[in-house]
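Handout, section 4.2: multi-component inputs.
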Amino acid sequence: MKLLSKIYNGIIFAFLYAPIVVLIVYSFNDSKHRVKWGGFTLDWYKELFHNELIMEALWLTLQIAVLAAVISTIIGTMAAVGIYSMNGRLRNLMMGVNNIPMVNPEIVTGISMMLMFVAIYRATGFLRPGFLTLLLAHITFCIPYVVLQVMPKLRQMNKHMYEAALDLGCRPVPAFFKVVLPEIMPGVITGALMAFTMSLDDFVISYFNSGASAQNLSVTIYSMTKKPITPEINALSTLMFGTVLLLLIIVNIRQVRDLNKQKERR
Amino acid sequence: MNEKKIIELRDIAVSFDGEPVLKNLNLSISDGEFVTLLGPSGCGKTTTLRIIAGFITPDSGDVFFDGKRVNDLPAYKRTVNTIFQRYALFPHLNVYENVAFGMRVQKKSNQEIEETVTKMLELVNLKGFEKRSVAKLSGGQQQRVAIARALANNPRVLLLDEPLAALDLKLRKDMQTELKNIQKSLGISFIYVTHDQEEALSMSDTVVVMDNGVIQQIGTPQDIYNEPQNAFVADFIGESNILDGVMLEDYLVEFFGRKFSCLDAGFEKNEPVDVVIRPEDIDIVEPVKGHLTGLVTNVTFKGVHYDTIVDFKGFKWLIQTTDYYPEGSTIGIVLNPEDIHIMKKSAYSGMFGDYSSYSEEFDELGDAVAAAEAEEEAEE
Ligand SMILES: Nc1ncnc2c1ncn2[C@@H]1O[C@H](COP(=O)(O)OP(=O)(O)OP(=O)(O)O)[C@@H](O)[C@H]1O
Ligand SMILES: [Mg+2]
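Output:
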């Protein structure tokens, strides 16, 4: 029985990861043909870094990811604090509202945001599809993830700690920065990492909100696949996969560590 | 302690979600007084404390501090400090920085901060703990840090919300003495919340007994114990046998079909009253010599004394005696005038003071419930 379940697991993982393994292997393939193995090479990676189109997209992607992570973390943390201080029923309602965008199909989110931006552009001439719309879209879909990371830290916090700071003469805003923020910091950082990862990773929402002037990596890759595909794309995809994997591992390690710390405190 | 009123609560009313939690509460506290708010869980003790601290604004009524109305003064501007039920220390700061927190906010000089922190840590017996992380301290030590942190702000009034509830019995007793000493040596007012009546009686200058959002009695521990104002207070503070009686005239009461002289006066002629008899005040004699005779139905050894349940004409009394009277024996009792306390009838009449349902199991059950509640609280 045990053996059977191991085999079963093995098959599942094979199905899940085989395409990625193929991708990674071919990114080192010294041949233009996709099916033939022509020996190991790093040429595709070299070429990648000389491809201006890709480098530009990478730079844009990083800018968007950093900005989206920072801004959505600030907004998401404030939202979490606000929701936390609501009373029971309203709080549950707001958390429900927060969770909907995460389960909502990305394509719906993407298209609806596009429609809104276009409508605003038509009406006011402001918000032409481009960098700003892409950034706003990324901030928007990142916020719920930040809220979701920060909320449990607020719940674990001794709820009288903030009051204790006020009691000792601290004004409300400094009290938040002096005692609440340090307490929820692990959640805030994990939230920021999540937001950064989600932003790097996103294709669907970016596709609808980037416009011709500001294409991020995933959108660029997609447009490249319309022309005869080069193994450069394999190399790029491998790098993106590696980066996102690394970030997710970091997020996971942080969460496990936090859980252990919680257990220790009890 | 002097007569100057430092805090006054006038006609305070508070409700949460339409549920009245405090009703028409009036309370004044003198400078240097040790006042205890005592009452069962949910009676509004914490709410009262939070009104004084400034965390709750009452729906109606006024809060005065030094004669000035402070209803709208935010918590961070009030010269009171609070010891929270579960300490609420700042885990990312060490012991020194926790104690220094209030002074740092006030931008005191480093030298002054150091002097005060050292003095405070000495006061609470935590010298040498400056650099420790507060998360690694024991419950008792955390409690001490919380006290030092609050006192370092030099408050006029210290509010303490069941500060010792999470400590074990031995440590609790030691801390009671220590807190009392600290209060005396600093000469500031303490407002102390507890639901432990022993703690309240042994520490306070004044005890405020509350139930259901209403103050039942305010008085010295002796007053509260010896002259309870109604059946609730009589039952909540210590053990009491509470009987129906009729006040025939001043200094003469009738119950169980017998007249007893007592020390109380000022009632209407033939006014129905509640009669309180403390279990430890009752003298047991031979049946023939007794004012009343009864049958022992249950005996429990309690260490210093026996809890003896005696049936008098179907009404069961609790008598605490150092002598052992076995179950089934018949005894007589003598009631002297000073053993009898008369109370006006109240909404609580008939609800307490009958030991008919008394059994050891009930006692244990009660303890188990209390323990479970305490655990729940700790988990919150
Ligand atoms: N923020 C709140 N929202 C709703 N109800 C509340 C709130 N705070 C207190 N209550 C209710 O008010 C009543 C009094 O609460 P309070 O905390 O003052 O009681 P307490 O005497 O301190 O009890 P305990 O000994 O259990 O601490 C309780 O019934 C409680 O459920
Ligand atoms: Mg309370």
